[in-house]
Amino acid sequence: MDKIFKNRTDAARQLVGRLEKMNLADAVVLAVPRGGVPVGFEIAKTLQLPLDVFLSKKIGHPDNPEFAIGSVTLESSVLGNRAEYVDPEYLEEQTAAIRRQLRERYRRFRGGRQPLELQGKTVILVDDGVATGNTLFAAIDDIRRKKPAKIIVAIAVAPPEAARKLSQRADELVCLLVADDFYAVGQFYEDFSTVEDEEVTALLRNFDKRATEKGGK
Q: Which end of the chain is more exposed for a tag (fewer CB within 10 A), N or C?
């Protein structure tokens, strides 16, 4: 299949074309680092919405760390079916360790800034694409506990099964491409360069600066 997106900015602009047709009253954008942040930045900037990050990290199987058996956010965790065969002590230790890492990452990205208030808001959860969807499943469950008015997942590409599960968990799914021949998110991008932590921090600071300057006018 031909490359669908030039880069993450191109994907974001295509997502904006879908999102701007929706009712986004009192909406906020939550981007999943790292690849989702350039996408979320462009969406929030164009639609003039607040931007923050949502941190989540997979729990790897003890025999194969690359195989996800669940995921952890700053405040919750989601375990897959395979986790029932794993030592509960391992799961507890991994969850605590991952949560410490996530708290440190949030401080690095956002400094002392408090997370956005989500109660009663339309939350647009953004990533550059998903493979399994596990990271976003945990994010949706965590966000739901904060009582938003609606959760919209906005992603560039996903395989059919992940898209189906996301559409069941979110209130609305905006996915530019559901690809049957999916093997990796990057196959659909001409430029899928690694997004480093420094770029995430710079984008968020740039966005905050723009918002402050606009608010001061």
A: C
pLDDT digits (tens, 9 = 90+) for 18-33: 999 998 989 999 999 9
Distance of CA 114 to the CA centre of its chain: 18
Phi, psi of 150 (to 5 degrees): -160, 150
Q: Where are the domains of the chain?
A: 8-56+118-215
- Residue 5 gets which letter from DSSP? B
CATH topology of domain 8-56+118-215: Rossmann fold (3.40.50)
pLDDT in tens, 66-110: 777 788 888 777 777 677 888 899 999 999 999 999 999 999 999
Q: Residue 54 in 3-state DSSP? A: coil
* 150 closest CA partner among 33, 23, 40: 23
- Can you state the percent helix, strand and coil of the chain, rounding each to 5? 45, 25, 30
